[in-house]
Specification:
This protein is of the alpha+beta class and about 260 residues long. It folds into 2 domains: about 170 residues, 3-Layer(aba) Sandwich (Trna Endonuclease, Chain: A, domain 1), CATH 3.40.1350; about 80 residues, no CATH class. Helix content is about 30%, strand content about 25%. It has a 4-stranded antiparallel beta sheet. A 4-stranded mixed beta sheet has the order 7-10-11-12. Strand 5 and strand 6 form a beta hairpin. Helix 2 crosses helix 4. The N terminus is likely disordered.
Length: about 260
């Protein structure tokens, strides 16, 4: 697909093959003020603040396109993040659920390899402990030889910089469906009051079915308070096996907040 960067940048930053011109791997990105930057892809890149980068590119819109795009509200940082496919949407949802992320950007940069090729990774994150990581997102069935070679080059570059790197694929259906359901309750408005939270966690000194936990924290029917339980499942203060479909009979236990 023909892709174009977002925003206006000097022509020199849009020319292909700049990595070859400089004789080394380079990084390009746009900061929150709209200014374009370029820097060597070495260990100093950990200080570039790429989690604050704005979207570097967006797909050109055309009739009957097959991919879906939009914005995902990332609950850990309370920001809307651009995604350009449903696989990226699921990847953001999984990262939101599973990682202690304090900074994140999507379509954050362009890598200019020294051999003249370029690549646009999908997600950049910063964890609570300061670890920075880079992700690409693509279903395994769509990783051809060319993509595999690009991902291998990106992995090598990230190792030299000091960034963990991972290619995220599609989630298994039960996990995806469960996360989509729980994500509807990720907003802080669904967080239970402290006394309700303590009641739920105290009750789970031993594993119990979801419906029993909902009854314990409700002054009425379980449906009146189930949103509190779903929120605690999303924040992982309550744990369930999400590889299986959620139901009233799903066994819950105390979890841990990531």
């Amino acid at each position: 697909m023909d892709m174009s960067p977002v925003g206006r940048k000097p022509r020199s930053l849009r020319e292909p093959g700049l990595g070859a011109t400089f004789g080394r791997d380079m990084l390009q990105w746009i900061d929150g003020e709209g200014a374009a930057h370029m820097a060597p892809a070495d260990s100093r890149a950990t200080g570039l603040g790429l989690h604050k980068a704005v979207v570097y590119r967006q797909g050109i819109k055309y009739p009957h396109r097959r991919n879906y795009e939009g914005y995902y509200w990332f609950s850990r940082t309370a920001q809307h993040l651009w995604y350009e496919s449903l696989t990226e949407y699921s990847a953001l949802m999984w990262l939101d659920f599973s990682k202690a992320i304090v900074g994140i950007s999507t379509q954050p940069l362009r890598i200019l390899f020294a051999d003249g090729r370029s690549h646009y990774p999908d997600i950049f994150t910063v964890l609570r402990d300061g670890t920075q990581a880079l992700y690409d997102v693509r279903p395994q069935s769509l990783i051809d030889d060319k993509a595999a070679a690009t991902f291998a080059k990106t992995a090598d570059l990230c190792q030299r910089i000091g960034w963990p790197y991972q290619v995220l694929g599609e989630l298994d259906l039960p996990m995806r469906h469960n996360l989509e359901w729980l994500a509807a309750y990720r907003h802080p408005r669904y967080r239970p009051p402290p006394d309700v939270r303590e009641t739920a966690l105290d009750y789970l000194s031993e594993p119990a079915p979801l419906i029993d936990v909902a009854r314990v924290v409700s002054s009425g029917p379980p449906a009146f308070s189930i949103h509190f339980v779903y929120h605690l499942l999303w924040t992982r203060e309550i744990h369930a096996d999400l590889a299986r479909p959620l139901s009233w009979n799903t066994s819950l236990e105390r979890g841990y907040h990531v």
